[in-house]
From TrEMBL:
InterPro entries: ClpP/crotonase-like_dom_sf, Enoyl-CoA_hyd/isom_CS, Enoyl-CoA_hydra/iso, Enoyl-CoA_hydra_C. This is Enoyl-CoA hydratase-related protein. SUPFAM superfamilies: ClpP/crotonase (SSF52096). It comes from Spectribacter acetivorans. It comes from the Bacteria. Belongs to the enoyl-CoA hydratase/isomerase family. Keywords: Lyase. PANTHER family: ENOYL-COA HYDRATASE, MITOCHONDRIAL, ENOYL-COA HYDRATASE-RELATED. The lineage of its organism: Bacteria, Pseudomonadati, Pseudomonadota, Gammaproteobacteria, Salinisphaerales.
Length: 258
């Protein structure tokens, strides 16, 4: 598949890297960009040799939000019919681990894309924010719902209602980011984390991601029930037998996604 707004590479075994490539507009996410990201994730989902995906921008910006020029041309019906919600849903539905490597501006829709990742590695130059309120709108790519789940009510309210910017250290302290590293280490560290994760059993990874995300969707009892069902299901997998055998035989497991 060929893309205009992203580059897709395979920098390490079982790891796919999607780089947003619109530096002239700080990687603003026009609808085509979101669609290409969702398309690349669909390709990665179907590829058994991909265990995890890293998404990044460049040194100046992860992504500076929705493309404001594109937005300016859309009225209410245009926004309603833009197809963006469907692309956001395709990204959220990706079943393999998705790791964001964040440098520079991570604003608006860019911050929402980061929130749609499973975990974030941020450079110490990263700047997070939901500045939509300053444009007379609100986050529309899941920001109000995912941010509050990530950082809690008080800080999410402060971020969304003020449009304030948040530095990497604060983002880490607030639970938005898993790790903060020197700016030039964000992508290498994210690739390293992805390679480590991608070495685990694919079915267990998919089940664990789904079970963790259930915590945001269901009451505790239903989430615990789902977790138990996943465990029972995984107990029927070849990879579970391989994992246990490898432990007992003191060797590295060879997982096959079955
Ligand atoms: N959309 C379109 N173009 C953008 C853009 C965006 N979100 N962000 C930056 N650009 C463009 C600028 O217009 C500029 O283009 P020109 O060279 O043609 O003038 C170019 O990128 C470089 O931008 P700056 O000169 O402003 O670069 P900077 O380094 O001084 O500042 C910035 C960078 C802080 C990210 C600043 O550009 C900025 O504030 N951008 C907008 C951030 C924003 O408001 N994002 C929210 C968008 S709305 C949203 O996301 C909607 C939603 O969820 C529903």
């Amino acid at each position: 598949m060929t893309y205009d707004d992203i580059d897709v590479t395979r920098p390490a075994e079982r790891v796919c890297h999607i780089r947003i490539n619109r530096p002239e507009v700080r990687n603003a996410l026009r609808t085509q960009t979101l669609t290409e990201i969702a398309d690349a994730l669909a390709v990665a989902a179907a590829d058994e040799t991909v265990g995890a995906v890293v998404i990044s921008g460049d040194s100046k910006a992860f992504a500076a939000g929705a493309d404001i020029r594109e937005m300016a041309g859309l009225g209410a019906i245009g926004v309603w019919q833009s197809g963006r919600p469907a692309q956001w849903q395709r990204i959220a539905d990706f079943e393999k681990p998705l790791i964001g490597a964040v440098n520079g501006y991570c604003l608006g829709g860019g911050c929402e894309l980061a929130l749609a990742c499973d975990l974030l590695i941020a450079g110490d130059d990263a700047v997070f924010g939901q500045p939509e309120i300053k444009l007379g709108i609100l986050p529309g790519g899941g920001g109000t719902q995912r941010l509050i789940r990530a950082v809690g009510k008080a800080f999410a309210m402060q971020m969304v209602l003020s449009g304030m910017r948040v530095d990497a250290a604060t983002a880490e302290r607030r639970g938005l980011v898993a790790e903060t590293v020197p700016a030039d280490q964000a992508l290498p560290r994210a690739l390293e984390v992805a390679a480590d994760i991608a070495g685990n059993a694919p079915l267990a990874l998919a089940a664990a991601k789904k079970a963790l995300n259930q915590a945001f969707e269901t009451p505790l009892s239903a989430g615990l029930d789902f977790e138990r069902q996943c465990l029972a299901l995984l107990s029927a997998s070849e990879d579970r037998n391989e994992g246990i055998a490898a432990f007992l035989e003191k060797r590295k497991p060879v997982f096959r996604g079955r």
